[in-house]
Amino acid sequence: MIRVAIVEDNRQIREGLRFLIDTTTGYRVTGAFGSIEEARPAIAAGDPQVVLMDIGLPGMSGVDGIRLLKTAHPHWHFLVLSVYDDDHRVFDAICAGACGYLLKKTPPARLLDSIREIAEGGAPMSPEIARRVVELFRQVRPPPQADYGLTPHESRLLRMLVEGHNYKTAAAELGVSVNTVSFHMRRVYDKLQVHSKSEAVAKVLRDHLA
After folding, report:
1. Is the pLDDT of residue 145 over 50?
2. Which is higher by pLDDT, 46 or 204?
3. Which whole-number Å values give the CA distances from 52 to 18, 149, 154, 204, 205, in the listed order?
4. What is the pLDDT of residue 140?
5. Mean pLDDT of all residues in 118-134
6. Which domains does the chain have, with CATH numbers?
7. Which helix (H) or strand (E) is 135 found in, with range?
8. What angle is formed at CA 85 by the lines to CA 80 and CA 90, rounded to 5 degrees?
9. What are the φ/ψ torsions at residue 13 (nearest 5 degrees)?
10. Contacts (Cβ under 8 Å, ≥6 apart) of 93
11. Upper half-sphere CA count for residue 210 (Cβ side, 13 Å)
């Protein structure tokens, strides 16, 4: 059973998401909130695995909300569901700790698949968002002595994570086992001094790592 919390200010959308998730086998909504201010005192009680987060919220923004909640609950996975697809918001959301980014036009079946994917360690993105992230990544260049001692293979794994791969799909593309990818990523996390895939992706984008 995947536990999901929803933070969405539009009541009709919020209740539609609640109905979709609660009536699908294998999923359960632990709480649905209209703002970060409403969510803060109550969201932790359900200990959601995935937080479905709008970013255009009244009061505190969804990006700031992700940053705040991620600090308090680093094991939660944040999946943005937004109408915004501009580079600035996408970049800020990922740097704040979002593991995935979907547009609100995403079909219900794809949304449910993405919730499960993110709970299992994936980084689902709408095609338009994935293209923007890849383009942002291609534009950056590592400054001198900012590679953290990464090997070419480790850098390639990081690129694959930024492009939306999880350990399973990365292993399949590289022709190695998931355990091998996990081993290399533990070394990458140590070198970058991060503790999760979302933190690693954020550091790649912030520090212009190749």
Report:
1. no
2. 46
3. 11, 35, 30, 24, 23
4. 58
5. 83
6. 2-126 (3.40.50.2300), 140-207 (1.10.10.10)
7. helix 127-139
8. 55
9. -65, -45
10. 55, 62, 63, 66, 80, 82, 101
11. 11
